[in-house]
Amino acid sequence: MKRISGIAAPLSAAIVVLAFYPPVSANPTASLSLDPASGAIAGQPGETIGFGFTLTSNSTDWISVTSSALTFETNPSLGTFTDFIGLQGGPSPSFALAPLASWSEVFDGTSQGIGSYALDSGAIPFSQNTGQIEVAFDIFNADPSQGGTQIASDIVSAPFSITVEPEVSTVPEPASCWWLTCAMVVLAGADGLNRKLRPTSRVAASAGFDGNSIWVTHTDGTVAKR
Q1: Residues 6+ apart with CB under 8 A from 163
Q2: 214 phi/psi in degrees, rounded to 5
Q3: What is the pLDDT of residues 164-207, one digit of tens each?
Q4: Which residues contact 32 (CB under 8 A, 6 or more apart)?
Q5: How confident is the model at residue 65 (pLDDT cuts 50, 70, 90)?
Q6: How far is the C-alpha of 129 from the C-alpha of 48, rounded, in Å?
Q7: Element (H, E) at 186
Q8: Where are the domains positioned within the chain?
Q9: Which pLDDT does position 218 carry in this prediction?
């Protein structure tokens, strides 16, 4: 057989690559959707927020989650991600997802959900971090809690977006405003009464009698008749 120079080496390299990286299946083992469905969450600097999820098996095998992580982040310094789903593996009692089943959790801030995200206390309002949440899992030919054997591993992902909200100043409640208004009215009334009761320092400058009444002229220009 005639050997074509320059072809054998590239073909050998291609075979090695395919051996380590098998082609991606057109029918993924599982699918992932986030809660909220848009994958977009927001919070104020220093606040801890997070994602809920639904993980659906598209396989006749069992799935046990091993970890979750943020990848392809545009702003990694915006905060810190903590994995929740990897510590659970799957729904109890097997801590694995059964064939063609779904597993959902709402983020509760402590242990439920795909994971939490602690925004940095110095995060700038309206700054963002976007990327992919990847969930890694092992695949078993039977329930792993009943002796199933691991036959493969895989990863599923979904896009996410995290936005920093501006801090909101505290506004008094309506009841507090009402009491404040009442207090101001009372103080204003007391001040007016005090002005009325305050003695004056007027001094009579002259006096006279016009046949009908006595009049007195004070130093401030006012005239009083009696």
Answers
A1: 40, 41, 42, 126, 127, 128
A2: -95, 130
A3: 999 876 655 565 554 455 445 444 554 554 555 455 555 555 55
A4: 53, 54, 55, 56, 133, 135, 156, 157, 158
A5: very high
A6: 14
A7: helix 174-197
A8: 18-164, 176-225
A9: 58
CATH class of residue range 18-164: mainly beta
Report pLDDT for 125. 97
Backbone angles phi, psi at 85, to 5 degrees: -65, -35
Q: Determine the average pLDDT of the residues in 91-109.
A: 96
Residue 221 in tokens: 């220009």
- Rounded to whole angstroms, how far apart are CA atoms 105 and 103? 7
Residue 89 carries which side chain, given as an amino acid letter? Answer: G
How big is the chain, counted in residues? 226
Residue type, 205: A
CB-facing half-sphere around the CA of 124: CA atoms within 13 A: 5
What single-letter amino acid sits at 21?
Answer: Y
Report residue 132 as tokens: 């992919």
Rounded to whole angstroms, the Cα distance separating 115 from 83 reads: 5
Task: Please name which of 18, 157, 148 lies closest in space to residue 94, comparing C-alpha atoms.
Answer: 148
